[in-house]
């Protein structure tokens, strides 16, 4: 896990000029790679590559980057891990190649030379962002792994093409001009992140997962990227060849696949552990790790003194059962609030998912003892764990069948009372309900139901489930024309897909890489920790799309087959409980100790002067929230985090 940056220009810069640019860019990424740094330039080609290294495999100088291929044709910088590099090395060795060291970087460079960039990356199993300069064709290839675990940004302005692992490095490129993309701001307010391939800045792209792009200095504009691995093709192949084995046989196959994915991610020459939340996904990963380990695995969890968001007691009990060496950090409001002012620095593209706070804190705790940590990310998206899959796939078709007038009436009725009213009403009847039928956050769910009924189509209903602001344009002075995004495209594509597949495919292609994985990447890299995600092994992804729906959701319970695997490893009663989620009480904080800080950002002269937000609309939303009339805390958090981000990255430049 490292940081890369570089430029490609036709401006005829000399060696010292190129080196200065590259070193300034890569210097901003020191947190991603504190162990080593490197820079390489070719003035004749107008190219420069910079690197910051977090040493994981082959800690010697044999792993130093930038690195040349055997003949010197390619020079590469590489962020991530290719877990099957030993198998690839054996294949390359059959053709006479001999490595100098043990790093996967050396294998990548040799593979590019032997097979070419595209054919090589098609064989990689791992997480990676790669930049490779080809002296023979005088071209630069950028590559991002199939599920988008590692980030890669790029732009072209003023005759210079720049690229980097994080936006902060592009901001230090002399030709870069920062201008807010209004459509991206609109999408950020709705989803709490900026869906790719757009970014918050005009003219800057995220390379989509599973894509590569080939660039030349003389190109007048950025060419389109091309997929070397397609999630939609994996879905289509899985749909054509569904698995027909028994549930027991499929459970066995998934356990074998996940066990091998975990095994591959245990390769490290530094201390290694796991983040354990106590949920299905992380517990499965830790149980499979411990089953393969010769000594107790190091595990880490964060607990909260506010019981509604705390699963630490479950994580501790599971750690004891599995025999791990467990570290737990208990947090009160003060510890979580202390992180908030620093969030905009860690997240150089705005993110407003409140779970970024505990994610950063658990990474900080883990980094005290380990350099690599496995996580359980991806289980919900691959195996149907979210309530929006479980309930949405039931409710949306039924609501679509109702007359629009009836739905609008129902929406008005559900929204007539505050979420607090519905919570109190439910609390009065809850004691009479069976335990397994009791619900959490009833007021929020009633409000979501009202939003669903107010939407016109299945596509709009699903978007409403994902939206913090149902109508972001209400608080923007100059709303951009909204273009079709990946969610829209999936809901309108032909031939038609089952609703559950549309929802899960949309999340896997956008929400997972650009929100969840970005959150984990920035949080872990802020403290120089490498996070590995075995559930997102591309073999597991392909397997998940061959599963019939009943092995994902059954009897209003998600992750059926993944649960079966875990039941083999952990007593069922230890993990069967309502989903809590990994977050913080943001509504409580915004009405309490964060009220003044957030209010200063929302009502500052900067918010008016920037000309992006409608001050009166923001003030009205804030007043209604403070009065308890709405549960818009997360929506307002998005505006707060954008303003804090703007202060950090635009006004301080």
Written account of the structure:
The two termini are 27 Å apart. The protein is 45% helix and 14% strand. The longest helix is centred in the C-terminal third of the chain and has 28 residues. It is α+β, with helices and mostly antiparallel strands. The chain has 4 domains: 227 residues, Glutamine Phosphoribosylpyrophosphate, subunit 1, domain 1 (4-Layer Sandwich); 208 residues, HUPs (Rossmann fold); 114 residues, no CATH class; 64 residues, no CATH class. α8 crosses α9 and α9 packs parallel to α24.
Q: Which key phrases capture this entry?
A:
single chain, 653 residues, alpha+beta, Glutamine Phosphoribosylpyrophosphate, subunit 1, domain 1, Rossmann fold, 4 domains, six-stranded antiparallel beta sheet, 45% helix
Question: Care to give the gist of this entry?
Answer:
The protein has 653 residues and is α+β, with helices and mostly antiparallel strands. It is built from 29 helices and 17 strands. Helices cover 45% and strands 14% of the residues.
């Amino acid at each position: 896990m490292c940081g890369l940056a570089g430029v490609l220009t036709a401006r005829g810069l000399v060696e010292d000029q190129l080196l200065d640019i590259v070193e300034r860019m890569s210097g901003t990424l020191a947190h991603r790679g504190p162990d080593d740094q490197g820079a390489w330039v070719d003035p004749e080609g107008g190219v420069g590559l910079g690197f910051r290294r977090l040493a994981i495999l082959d800690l010697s100088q044999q792993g130093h980057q930038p690195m040349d291929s055997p003949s010197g044709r390619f020079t590469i910088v590489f962020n991530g891990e290719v877990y099957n590099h030993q198998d690839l090395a054996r294949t390359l060795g059959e053709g006479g190649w001999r490595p100098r060291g043990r790093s996967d970087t050396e294998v990548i460079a040799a593979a590019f030379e032997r097979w070419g960039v595209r054919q090589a990356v098609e064989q990689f199993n791992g997480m990676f962002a790669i930049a490779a300069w080809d002296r023979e064709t005088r071209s630069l290839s950028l590559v991002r792994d199939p599920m988008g675990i590692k980030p890669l940004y790029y732009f072209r302005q003023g005759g210079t093409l720049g690229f980097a692992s994080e936006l902060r490095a592009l901001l230090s490129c002399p030709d870069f001009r920062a201008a807010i993309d209004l459509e991206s701001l609109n999408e950020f307010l709705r989803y709490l992140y900026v869906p790719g391939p757009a970014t918050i800045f005009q003219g800057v792209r995220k390379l989509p997962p599973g894509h590569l792009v080939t660039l030349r200095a003389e190109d007048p504009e950025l060419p389109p990227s091309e997929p070397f691995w397609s999630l939609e093709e994996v879905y289509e192949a899985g749909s054509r060849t569904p698995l027909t084995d028994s549930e027991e046989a499929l459970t066995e196959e998934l356990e074998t696949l996940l066990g091998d994915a975990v095994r591959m991610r245990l390769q490290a020459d530094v201390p290694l552990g796991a983040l354990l939340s106590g949920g299905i996904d992380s517990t499965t990963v830790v149980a499979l790790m411990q089953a393969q380990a010769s000594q107790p695995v190091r595990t880490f969890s964060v607990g909260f003194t506010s019981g509604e968001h705390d699963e630490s007691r479950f994580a501790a009990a599971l750690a004891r059962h599995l025999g791990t060496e467990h570290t737990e950090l208990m947090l009160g409001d003060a510890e979580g609030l202390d992180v908030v002012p620093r969030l905009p620095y860690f997240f150089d593209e705005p993110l407003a998912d409140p779970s970024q706070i505990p994610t950063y804190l658990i990474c900080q705790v883990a980094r005290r003892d380990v350099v690599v940590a496995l996580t359980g990310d991806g289980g919900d998206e691959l195996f149907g764990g979210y309530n929006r899959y479980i309930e949405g796939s039931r409710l949306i078709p039924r609501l679509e069948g109702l007359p629009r007038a009836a739905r609008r009436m129902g929406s008005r009725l559900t929204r007539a009372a505050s979420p607090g009213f519905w919570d109190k009403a439910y609390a009065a009847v809850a004691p009479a309900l069976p335990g397994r039928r009791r619900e959490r956050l009833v007021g929020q769910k009633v409000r979501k139901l009202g939003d669903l009924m107010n939407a016109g189509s299945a596509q709009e209903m699903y978007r409403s489930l994902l939206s913090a602001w149902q109508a972001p344009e209400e608080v923007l002075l100059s709303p951009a024309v909204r273009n079709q995004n990946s969610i829209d495209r999936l809901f309108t594509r032909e031939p038609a897909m089952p609703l559950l597949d549309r929802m899960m495919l949309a999340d896997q292609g956008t929400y997972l890489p650009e929100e969840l994985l970005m959150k984990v990447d920035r949080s872990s890299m802020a403290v120089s920790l490498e996070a590995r995600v075995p559930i997102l092994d591309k073999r597991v992804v392909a397997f998940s799309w061959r599963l019939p729906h009943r092995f994902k959701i059954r009897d209003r319970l998600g992750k059926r087959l993944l649960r079966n695997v875990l039941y083999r490893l952990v007593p069922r009663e230890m993990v069967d409980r309502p989903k809590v989620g990994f977050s913080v009480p943001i509504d409580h904080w915004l009405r309490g100790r964060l009220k003044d800080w957030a209010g200063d950002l929302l009502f500052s002269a900067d918010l008016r002067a920037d000309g992006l937000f409608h001050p009166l609309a923001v003030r009205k939303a804030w007043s209604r929230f403070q009065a308890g009339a709405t549960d818009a805390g997360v929506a307002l958090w998005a505006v707060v985090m954008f303003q804090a981000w703007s202060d950090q990255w635009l006004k301080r430049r």
